[in-house]
């Protein structure tokens, strides 16, 4: 019996089928499942998610290159250019194109040719981000030597571009710095706050003055190009373009010739000169000294020398026309108004004046230490008698004097466009004194306030608004810079004063110039002037040096210009220091406006 039969060579078919059929079925099912899964995924990617993926692929191939708009021009009331745009050459980099290998060549070479720290450029690229399609400016205002050097090394400087750029330029320079202001690249903090408004890295923004106040009007709208790029992010061709929309031009109420004269009149003194149309609040001139050159802020970086010019101990960036100081005797306009409008004193009131008065145990002196004998309101204004107005302040009382101080606009902003730069000032009252000094209001506080001293703080612009009230017949005006040729009623509010009060104010202010402390303005080169001086006690670094004030308007019977001059810590009186400044400005103004009647005096050499 044979126990084992060897297979026959030549291959007879194996008839075994158990297990083989199940393997085949498993392979078929597995293949079907895999095919179905891949098909489903392909269908999902193509049908469901296809548009999103196509958009993502397209965005990797197509980029937007944004184009900054040109800012609007700024003109004075007569069409003279105050701010415009120039087109220097600047150097730009493509952040997406500068990978580490290429930057190791480009970075050091640019740093050498442009004298810019390499780290500074790297910081800008990092802020933009490697995928940014926006050109990043790293240098501005190239000179011819720099342009030539960059062209010599252009083989090394791949993806570095030299383009013209719109840069702000101020033809009048220092004379209008505090009016026009300046533009500057946004800081990182500003960019965070304003990114939602469409601002981008390297964008400029108004930082002060008109440039800041009318930023939205001047800025315009961004444009840009839709560009196809290669795998390295380099631009290949322009697919579409939207033109940037330039900002709107502005026409101001400023008279640039008057502004220049006021700047010259103020000279080297720290202080301010404000000129208004008293009938509608148009600001004709606004000068603050020390000043600065706003063109330095158009540079990419400020030199140490530039920084010193704007960071000096006298604070040249501070607009003194909008800063606070005690108004001194100019404030007697308000005290007169409060006395007459309260009913406590009649227009015919006559009071004896003295060398000094002792009230509440405190001695209050007269400025001439002798007094002027008996005076009415007009005579008291003419000679600026302190002891007369002490008696008015005491008789009226603190609440009524404070009420009229606020009605004249003190203690709040005037509504002028520079809201972030303008100080409110301070009108002290019972609440303020209790909070700050833990003491009640006394008659001595009313007496100090009656002559514009004590804790009272006002700006030269607010003082100009005060002078406009008697000048225009009893209206408080809102000073403004935008020329709109609108109705004067839009810019003024009646204080509902008695006609007799207005007449006494106007008569008194005229007497100041014709026969009193303001004779420096009683000249044939200008029409009749009405005004008031002020000399404020003040301390400067431990040394007592007066502030000098003078406010005036002309012609006295039908005013068309009002000027306030203020000299900070100048020493001397308002009539001797500040009034001559006003004379210089008025002579220029009336010689130009009324050349047939008034002649500007020849300059003495």
From TrEMBL:
Domain named Penicillin-binding protein dimerisation is located at 68-238
Keyword terms: Carboxypeptidase, Cell inner membrane, Cell membrane, Cell shape, Cell wall biogenesis/degradation, Coiled coil, Hydrolase, Membrane, Peptidoglycan synthesis, Protease, Transmembrane, Transmembrane helix
Keyword Membrane attributed:
yes
Q: Give the UniProt subcellular location, in the record's own words.
A: Cell membrane; Membrane
- Coiled-coil parts of chain: 136-163
Q: Recorded E.C. number(s)?
A: 3.4.16.4
The record's similarity note reads: Belongs to the transpeptidase family.
**Protein's name according to its UniProt entry:** Penicillin-binding protein 2
């Amino acid at each position: 019996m044979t126990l084992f039969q060897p297979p026959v060579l030549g291959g007879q078919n194996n008839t075994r089928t158990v297990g083989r059929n199940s393997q085949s079925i498993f392979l078929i099912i597995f293949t079907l499942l895999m095919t179905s899964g891949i098909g489903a995924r392909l269908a999902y990617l193509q049908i469901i998610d296809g548009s999103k993926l196509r958009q993502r692929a397209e965005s990797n191939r197509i980029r937007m290159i944004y184009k900054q708009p040109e800012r609007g021009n700024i003109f004075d009331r007569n069409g003279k250019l105050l701010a415009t745009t120039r087109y220097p050459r600047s150097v730009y980099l493509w952040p997406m194109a500068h990978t580490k290998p290429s930057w190791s060549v480009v970075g050091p070479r640019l740093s050498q040719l442009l004298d810019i720290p390499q780290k500074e450029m790297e910081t800008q690229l990092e802020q933009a981000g490697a995928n940014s399609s926006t050109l990043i400016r790293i240098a501005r205002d190239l000179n011819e030597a720099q342009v030539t050097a960059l062209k010599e090394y252009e083989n090394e400087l791949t993806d570095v571009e030299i383009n013209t750029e719109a840069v702000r330029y101020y033809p009048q320079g220092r004379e209008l710095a505090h009016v026009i202001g300046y533009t500057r690249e946004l800081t990182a903090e500003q960019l965070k706050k304003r990114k939602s408004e469409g601002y981008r890295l390297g964008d400029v923004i108004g930082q002060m003055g008109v440039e800041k106040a009318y930023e939205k009007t001047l800025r315009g709208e961004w444009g840009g190009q839709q560009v196809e790029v290669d795998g390295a992010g380099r631009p290949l061709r322009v697919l579409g373009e939207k033109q940037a929309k330039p900002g709107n031009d502005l026409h101001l109420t400023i008279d640039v010739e008057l502004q220049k004269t006021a700047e010259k009149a103020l000279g080297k003194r720290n202080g301010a000169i404000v000129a208004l149309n008293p009938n509608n609040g148009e600001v004709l001139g606004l000068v603050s000294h020390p000043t600065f050159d706003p063109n330095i802020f158009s540079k990419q970086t400020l030199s140490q020398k530039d920084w010193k010019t704007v960071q000096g101990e006298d604070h040249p960036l501070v607009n003194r026309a909008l800063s606070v100081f005690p108004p001194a005797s100019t404030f007697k306009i308000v005290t007169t108004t409060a006395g007459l409008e309260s009913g406590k004193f009649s227009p015919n009131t006559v009071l004896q004046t003295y060398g000094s008065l002792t009230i509440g145990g405190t001695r209050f002196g007269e400025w001439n230490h002798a007094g002027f004998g008996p005076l009415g309101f007009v005579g008291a204004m003419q000679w600026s008698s302190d002891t007369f107005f002490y008696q008015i302040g005491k008789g009226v009382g603190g609440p009524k004097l404070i009420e009229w101080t606020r009605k004249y606009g003190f203690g709040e902003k005037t509504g002028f466009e520079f809201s972030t730069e303008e100080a409110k000032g301070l009108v002290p009252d019972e609440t303020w004194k209790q909070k700050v000094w833990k003491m009640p209001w006394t008659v001595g506080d009313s007496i100090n306030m009656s002559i514009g001293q004590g804790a009272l703080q006002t700006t030269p612009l607010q003082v100009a608004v005060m002078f406009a009230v008697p000048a225009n017949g009893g209206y408080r005006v809102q000073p403004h810079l935008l020329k709109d040729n609108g109705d004067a009623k839009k810019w003024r509010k009646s204080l509902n004063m008695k006609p007799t009060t207005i007449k006494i104010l106007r008569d008194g202010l005229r007497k100041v110039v014709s026969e009193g402390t303001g004779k420096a303005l009683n000249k044939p080169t200008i029409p009749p002037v009405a005004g008031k001086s002020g000399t404020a006690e003040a301390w400067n670094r431990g040394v007592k040096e007066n502030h000098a004030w003078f406010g005036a308007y002309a012609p006295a019977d039908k005013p068309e210009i009002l000027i306030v001059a203020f000299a900070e810590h100048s020493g001397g009186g308002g009539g001797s220091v500040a009034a001559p400044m006003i004379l210089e400005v008025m002579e220029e103004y009336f010689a130009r406006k009324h050349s047939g009647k008034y002649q500007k005096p020849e300059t003495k050499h």
